[in-house]
Write a structure and sequence with these properties.
The chain has 414 residues and is α/β, with parallel strands linked by helices. Helix content is 35%, strand content 20%. Strands 1, 2, 3, 4, 5, 14, 15 and 16 form an 8-stranded mixed sheet that branches. A 4-stranded parallel sheet has the order 6-7-8-9. Strands 10-11-12-13 form a 4-stranded parallel sheet. Helix 6 links the parallel strand 8 and strand 9. Bound molecules: 3-[(4S)-2,5-dioxoimidazolidin-4-yl]propanoic acid (DI6) and fe (iii) ion.
Length: 414
Amino acid sequence: MNTPAVRRPNRALWRGAHLATLRPDRPWGWIPDGAIVTEGERIAWVGPAAALPAGLAVDAEHDWGGGVVTPGLIDCHTHLVYGGNRAREFELRLQGASYEEIARAGGGIRSTVQATRDASDAALLDATLGRARVLLREGVTTVEIKSGYGLSQADEARCLRVARAVGERLPMTVRTTALGAHALPPEFAGRADDYIEALCDWLPGWQAEGLVDAVDGFCEHIAFSPAQIDRLFSRARALGLPVKLHAEQLSNSGGTALACRHQGLSCDHLEHLDDAGVQALAAAGTVAVLLPGAYYFLRDTHLPPVAALRAAGVPIALATDHNPGTSPTLSPLLMMNMACTLFRLTPEEALAGFTRHAARALGLHERLGQLTPGRQADWAHWAVDHPHELAYRFGHSPVCRVVRAGQPVQEVLA
Ligand code: DI6
Ligand code: FE
């Protein structure tokens, strides 16, 4: 038999479920009784099963057997790489100590830095892979992973390598973010400006090793000032790296406007964002990433300005912000529920926050975040009748089966 000179990629037909494609032209991008045709890693066709092209030749056919298919979830803000945990600090906060007091006394982020530096490469990778698997089981096919608990040239690089390894070991797309400007390491006590200078000098080496997709910072009175973040972001942009920022989480320090001046991909947290900040996001096309896990776990009461963000047309993404200090959750569906109950998002906005808008927050909106022809064949198939059920339950989640780049991934999770 002759082998054709150009083989078309494997074509597969999937049918037997409703689709929430997240195409913005109709609510949920809803297609009842839909079908998807994949070619290799990409989606080739999406529509009602009744409208499938006649005589379509496929290599494989799959029946979902009911349920709802959504784009693979995108967790666009996580700190998955760290050693130890902060359960003791949780107890202290419940007894009345504030997050800032604990941080100023050398606990908080800096205690996790010590535990991370003390962990072996193998232990760090193991712990991180374990967390990533939990996300994958709940439908996450793309995850952003920050460094930020190494805070030295070698330890930040180690954490970024672990993050990269997640994308090599698991069927997930990983975007790495260098968050050296998370806290001041003990070696630089009292010398924050020197630390920022050092960080700027470390960036090109990490970039040359392929470890950095973006640069992040913590702009806050207990962390770094807008002027310090400005210097770091100027260097990042000169290297061609996009930036994003932990901004206005505990106070309004103007980090959002600064990040927008550097064409930031996203500004994250935003509990204390003011009107000027909302307008800056809208003008720059920067995504607002809301993190209800941290708001809840810190027992915050200052709500992010959701109505103003909505009115200004700012895309709103959601993420777990998984980290040991302020958001030790690994459940995107719980975050969707909390975004609705605490922040008053609609269930549809919550799902868009973990798909279409999260893709934009990572600069991947042309490739991911919607079920449309040309995009990567990443999806989650849920045992529900309607997508509004995804944000409804909490503390338990519907069964979810994941396909990533056209391949079922259940076996790696067994
Ligand atoms: N804001 C946060 O909520 C996390 N990082 C940040 O900049 C907290 C990280 C931690 O407490 O370990
Ligand atoms: Fe964070």
